[in-house]
Structures are given as C-alpha cells and as structure tokens.
TrEMBL record:
It comes from the Bacteria. The keyword RNA-binding does not apply. The chain crosses the membrane at residues 7-27, 47-66, 73-92, 98-115. Keywords: Membrane, Transmembrane, Transmembrane helix. SUPFAM superfamilies: Multidrug resistance efflux transporter EmrE. This is EamA domain-containing protein.
Length: 120
C-alpha cells in the first residue's frame, strides 16, 4: 500500500464513527419532534445528515477498494470501531469501563498484526 492508501483508509476509519455520532444525535433529536413517525423522519435533519454522510463515505470506500485489497482496507474498520465508544463517552457521556478499554486494546493489537501480514 502507498502512503495515500493508508491515509484514505485511516480517514475512512474516522468517518465511520462520525456517522455513528450523527445517528445518535438524530435519535436524540427524534424524541423532541412531535407528530406521526413519517413526519418526524422528514423533520429529522440530523438523520438526513447521517444518511448523506454515509452516502459520501460509501463513495470514498468504493474509491479505496479500487486501490487497496479489501482484506487490508477492511482492517481499518477496527480503528473506527474502537473510536465509537470513546466518542460516545466523551460527547454523550455514555458509561465506559476498563473492560471496554481492554477489549478495544486487543482489537487494536489485532489490527497491528493484520498490517504486518504479507498477502500470499
């Protein structure tokens, strides 16, 4: 992989948890909107933003896959998965424990092992 490929994959890994934060924000916003469900969905602008964000990230993902093997690129999703609970703890004050930290530490160790693997 070239440096640009690593940069694109890392950017994608950060983009995914941002999308999750947008969906959480939309869920919280949904509770504040009155009316029937279809109306609430149409008025939920954070939800529309989350859908738009995921649309853009899907295009970036497609571009990444034109340059990088799926097995390598997908490993970067581990980084994004590790960021979601951390961001939820910081932004939404959701509970976290040392067990989360240990589990995600193991995931990150696995990520480093995957990056060292040579394709056969």
């Amino acid at each position: 992989m070239k440096a640009l490929d690593y940069l694109l994959c890392a950017g994608f890994a950060v983009a995914l948890p941002i999308g999750q934060l947008l969906f959480k924000w939309a869920a919280l916003y949904q509770a504040q909107i009155a009316g029937p469900m279809p109306w609430k969905l149409l008025k939920n602008f954070p939800l529309m933003g989350a859908f738009g964000w995921y649309g853009l990230t899907a295009l970036v993902w497609f571009y990444i896959l034109t340059r990088t093997p799926l097995s390598t690129a997908y490993a970067f999703s581990i980084l994004g998965s590790a960021l979601v609970p951390l961001m939820a703890w910081v932004i939404f004050k959701e509970p976290a424990s040392w067990k989360f930290a240990v589990g995600y530490g193991l995931m990150l160790a696995g990520f480093l092992v995957i990056l060292q693997a040579k394709p056969s």
